[in-house]
Amino acid sequence: MEFRTKVDIEKAPWSIDIGERLLFVGSCFADNIGSRFREEQFDATVNPFGVMYNPISVLHTVERLHQAGEHFDAAFLTFGTNHIYILKETGKVVDNCQKRPQRLFEERALSVEECREAIEKTIGLLREMNPEVKVVLTVSPIRYAKYGFHGSQLSKATLLLAVGEIAAKLQVQTTTYFPSYEIVLDELRDYRFYKEDMLHPSAQAIEYIWQRMTETLLSERALRYLEEYRPIKQALAHRPFDAESDEYKEFKRRTMEQWEDLKRKYKI
Questions:
Q1: CB 158 within 8 A of CB 110
Q2: Can you tell me the distance from the alpha carbon of 91 to that of 138, in angstroms, rounded to the nearest whole number?
Q3: For the segment 1-42, what is each residue's pLDDT rounded down to a tens digit?
Q4: Cα–chain-centroid distance for residue 59?
Q5: pLDDT bucket at 61, cuts 50 / 70 / 90
Q6: b/e for 124-158, b at 16 or more Cβ within 10 A?
Q7: Going edge to edge, which strands form the sheet with 83-87?
Q8: Positive or negative torsion for Cα 229, 265, 73, 7
Q9: pLDDT digits (tens, 9 = 90+) for 147-158
């Protein structure tokens, strides 16, 4: 008897290899997943201009990277909300209110079409930076209690409709959707997979999503690397009772030698 509904995820028609340059932009969930890739020594740039919650703010980050002449092999775009804040003085969307008074801003919700247009423009800029870039779209599973839970669901629904339309149209062009939102709400769906605020996914939930993401999006070569790196990572994290002992120094030397061999093997 099956006591949960597992989200089926088709493998992408392409894969991400170790050594490729990755970009993670979006909500704090993008921080979580991007940091997990960096922990495994992937070349990952994570929210270089801060956390971006809505599609227009994500676009702003990619515009700055485009202007700087950057390029990436794969980009993960994570959208948390369709709500934006407009500075009344300029009429422009701000990415961070910087703790200024609420009265200076107008808050409104983007439509499905506005979200889709911003995301499509973002993908277009990424492709100008690298025509072969692989794009992963995902919606953050973090709920926004300040909108009310019905309002939070409406916000997520708007984002899901927008990214669903884009992924369906562009999948053959190396853009795909990864169901982070569905994994937490439909597969895990238990408060033990949330932090104490009951809004953010727990470390265990993040780790599970990471595992589903690697098996879906990484190349066989990258998966082999993760297996070979695991014991080295554990050894590097080891904290001895006596860091000055000859035994530990030899252990550390052998571990670093293994790590250098692995980096040469996978060209990282």
A1: yes
A2: 28
A3: 566 788 999 888 899 999 999 999 999 999 999 999 999 999
A4: 15
A5: very high
A6: ebbbebeeebbbbbbbbbbbbeebeeeebeebbeb
A7: 92-94, 83-87, 105-109
A8: negative
A9: 888 989 999 999
Both tokens of 176, joined, read: 């795909």
CA pseudo-torsion sign 195, 162, 49, 129: positive
> What is the residue-wise DSSP string for 216-254?
HHB-HHHHHHHHHHHHHHHHHT---S-TTSHHHHHHHHH
Residue keyed to tokens 């000859």: 246
Return the closest-CA partner of residue 72 out of 33, 119, 24, 23: 23
* Residue found under tokens 């795909």: 176
Among residues 1, 48, 10, the alpha carbon closest in space to that of 26 is found at 48
Q: Which residues have C-beta within 8 Å of that of residue 207, sequence separation ≥ 6?
A: 36
At 171, is the pLDDT very low, low, confident or very high (cuts 50, 70, 90)? low
What residue type is 90 in one-letter code? Answer: T
